[in-house]
Amino acid sequence: MARTLDSTPAVEPKTAGERPPRRRFRQTAGRQHHAGPLTYVLLVIATVVSLFPLYWNVVAASHTGDRVVQAPAPLLPGSRLLDNLTFAWDQVDMGEALINTTVVASLVAASTVLFSTLAGFAFAKLPFKGRGMLLSLVVATMTIPPQLSVIPLYQIITDLGWFDQLQSVVLPSLVAAFGVFFMRQFLVEALPVELVEAARMDGAHSLRIIWHVVFPVARPAMAVLGMLVFVQAWNDFFWPFIALTPDGNPTLQVALAGLGAGNHTVDHAIVLTGALISTVPLLLVFAFLGKHIVGGITAGAVKS
Question: Which of 61, 255, 272, 288 has the smallest C-beta neighbourhood within 10 Å, fewest atoms?
Answer without folding.
Answer: 288
